[in-house]
Specification:
By secondary structure, the chain is an alpha+beta fold. The chain has four helices and nine strands; from the N terminus they run H-E-E-H-E-H-E-E-E-E-E-E-H.
C-alpha cells in the first residue's frame, strides 16, 4: 500500500488538485477500500502483473473495467499516481482497426497517441504505448464512485 492511499482513497471528488482534501472529506468515502477516488471515478492500481485479458477479468469481478480515460486531466492524474510502473488500461484494437475502449467507444485521437504496434495499450510514466496482450503488466481498474453511480441511477429513475 502506498503511504498516501489512506488519505487519497477517502478524498471527495472535487475541482481541487487530485491530492488535496479538506478535513471534512476525510470522513466521506465514495470508493471501496484500497481504491483511489478522483473526478467521480474510483481507481484500483494493482501491485501484481497479469496479461491484459486476466487484468480485465479481475476488474470485472469488482463491477469495474480496465481504466478508460476521458480527459487529459484524468490521464495526468493516473500517470502521476501510477508512477514509474507500466499499467494496462482498457484500450485495445483488432489488427488494423482503430483503438477502442472496453465499453466499445473509439479513442478520440486528440486525447493522446498510442505508441508501438501492439494490440493492447498501457501507460508508462511518460506516454501511452502498446504491446502484445499476453505480456504481463500491472493494471488499473476504474468504475464510477458511489456518489456518481447513485446520481446516475436517480436520473435514470426519473
Amino acid at each position: 500500500m502506498r503511504p498516501s492511499d489512506a488519505l487519497v482513497s477517502h478524498a471527495v471528488p472535487s475541482l481541487a488538485p487530485p491530492f488535496a482534501s479538506s478535513p471534512a472529506s476525510l470522513f466521506v468515502s465514495y470508493c471501496p477500500k484500497k481504491w483511489v477516488g478522483y473526478g467521480g471515478k474510483c481507481y484500483y492500481f494493482s501491485e501484481e502483473e497479469k496479461s491484459w485479458n486476466v487484468s480485465q477479468h479481475f476488474c470485472s469481478s469488482f463491477n469495474a473495467s480496465l481504466a478508460g480515460i476521458d480527459t487529459l486531466q484524468e490521464k495526468d492524474f493516473i500517470m502521476r499516481y501510477a508512477g514509474l510502473v507500466e499499467h494496462w488500461i482498457g484500450l485495445r484494437r483488432e489488427s488494423g482497426q482503430p483503438w477502442k475502449w472496453v465499453n466499445g467507444t473509439q479513442l478520440k485521437q486528440q486525447l493522446f497517441e498510442v505508441r508501438a504496434e501492439g494490440d493492447c495499450a498501457y501507460l508508462s510514466d511518460v506516454f501511452v504505448s502498446s504491446s502484445r496482450c499476453y505480456s504481463v503488466r500491472n493494471w488499473i481498474c476504474s468504475k464510477p464512485d458511489a456518489y456518481m453511480k447513485a446520481k446516475k441511477n436517480a436520473m435514470e429513475g426519473e
